[in-house]
Amino acid sequence: MAPVGGTTVQDHVALAEIELCGDLIIAASAAHEDRLSLESIDEVLKVARERDASGQ
Predict the structure, then answer these.
(1) Gyration radius (Cα) of the chain, Å
(2) What b/e sequence results for 41-53 when a residue is b if at least 16 CB atoms lie within 10 Å of its CB, and e otherwise?
């Protein structure tokens, strides 16, 4: 049962994760290919990934 006083608790980490998931869903729905590439996912999530010399 929710508190009567209307106290709202926000989990900022959970809200950020939900926003990222939403961004991925939007990108996937707008994509022309069946799946987003890892590079596309990194771009949507604004992640810069460093690759080592072996290409992994």
Answers:
(1) 18
(2) beebeeeeeeeee
Query: Would you say the pTM of this structure is higher than 0.85?
Result: no
Confidence band for 47, pLDDT divided at 50, 70 and 90: confident
Residue 44's identity, in one-letter code, is V
Closest by CA position to 31, among listed 17, 41, 45, 21 = 41
CA distance 6 to 11: 16
- Report d(CA 41, CA 27) in Å as an integer: 8
Average pLDDT, whole number, for the chain?
82
Distance CA 14, CA 21 (A): 11
Helix (H, G, I), strand (E, B) or coil at 10: coil
